[in-house]
Amino acid sequence: MINTSKGIAFGLAISIALLLVAFLSLLEASNSIILLAAGTLTFSISYLLIHLSLEYLIFREIGNIYSVLEKIQKKDTTFNASNKIKASLPPLKSIQANIHDYAAAKNREIETLQKNETFRREFIADISHELKTPIFAAQGYIHTLMDGAVEDHAVRDKFLNRAAKSLNNLEDLVQDLITLNQIESGFIRFHPINFDLKESILEVMEQLEGKAQKKGISMTFRYEKEASYQSYADKDKIFRVLQNLVSNAIKYNKEAGSVTIQLNAHKNHLTVKVKDQGIGIQPEDLKRIFERFYRVEKSRSRENGGTGLGLAIVKHILEGHQSKIAVSSTPGKGSVFSFELPHASKVLEVQGAKSKK
Fold it and tell me: Where is the Histidine kinase domain (predicted)?
């Protein structure tokens, strides 16, 4: 009981009352009634004041601190560490603020670890599935040939071509994983140079022309002939960004649809937009399409090929250029992917100003 506010208040109140009674007993005018009344009144007032002071100014605040510490020890992240309880005394306020700051930091750390653990589980499940598909396909074709189908030349050539295609898909997946990991880890350096972005787009269109013709898809490139489209960026990596976006626009387009690439020059930057007439993307999928292996329609995506890493690579390459990939889509009508790059003239202007300083 002595460790509670009531026990401490009782002990101190008794001591104060006895001291007062002892002092009053030395006076000639005091008698037993006065001493009893003074002792009782002093005890009551002292007890109430001390008890309330200890309970509301100290013990309650210490209780709150212990409650937070107990939850931290139990790894309970349900409490809201941002809601700080105001302490009445400066020392306790400081302690409580430190405790809550520590709890908030630990809470964020735990949340990050939980997200990383979830990501790790999903990533292992996704990559296992993605690797299994081409491996099992190639394995099935080869085992069929080993079981006797190799004697039939038509079947042999057909199955060997399919096995080779599956292994090529496996190689593409591994290469994309290596590229993505190197970009995220900072092992791949960006080497910006001045180059004509318009020429890069024309090169990508020429490279993918055959793929578009197989689906009866037309490609249109819109730009102003008089404008300058010189950009300052990593040419090879931007080429890959364009390649991925135009390839996806063809891959997920409707039959006999169209792909429109628009290039606009502004004072300080260039804007690229790639528009298709495909099935579009649902609003709930828009935020996740740049995640690794995320596919809006998994079965259809695998039929069309691809590793599921293209948009993730696009996102990281553009972030390395201090830019972002934007997407807008209307289900049933198509999607528009866009990004910006710095204009070479603006970059040279900034570099010139820095050199003068």
Answer: 126-345
The more confident residue out of 315 and 172 is 315
| Neighbouring C-beta atoms of residue 16, cutoff 10 Å | 18
Residue 68 is predicted with a pLDDT of 65
Which residues, in sequence order, are CB contacts of 177 under 8 Å at separation 6+? 127, 307, 309
Instruction: Quickly list DSSP for 111-174.
Output: HHHHHHHHHHHHHHHHHHHHHHHHHHHHHHHHHHHHTTGGGSHHHHHHHHHHHHHHHHHHHHHH
CATH superfamily of 193-352: Histidine kinase-like ATPase, C-terminal domain (3.30.565.10)
* Antiparallel, parallel or unpaired: β 218-222 and 258-265: parallel
Positive or negative torsion for Cα 171, 172, 175, 177:
negative
Which residues of the chain form CATH 1.10.287.130?
A: 125-185
**Side chain identity at 298, as an amino acid letter?**
K
DSSP labels, 47-62 = HHHHHHHIIIIIIHHH
DSSP letter for each residue of 203-244: HHHHHTHHHHHHTT-EEEEE--TTS--EEEE-HHHHHHHHHH
Element of type H or E holding 334? strand 334-342
Enter the tokens of residue 204. 């990508």
Yes or no: is domain 125-185 CATH 1.10.287.130?
A: yes
Sheet holding 326-330, edge to edge: 218-222, 258-265, 269-275, 334-342, 326-330
Beta-bridge mates of residue 330: 334
Continuous segment of H or E residues that includes residue 271: strand 269-275
108-161 pLDDT, tens per residue? 887 877 777 776 776 676 667 667 777 888 888 888 888 887 777 788 888 888
Whole-model pTM: value is 0.59
Q: Where in the chain is the domain with CATH 3.30.565.10?
A: 193-352
Q: Which helix (H) or strand (E) holds 260?
A: strand 258-265
Burial of 155 (0-12, 13-18, 19+ CB in 10 A): middle
Over range 164-171, report the average pLDDT.
82
**C-alpha span between 344 and 269 (Å, rounded):** 8
In angstroms, rounded to a whole number, what is the distance separating the alpha carbons of residues 5 and 208?
Answer: 81
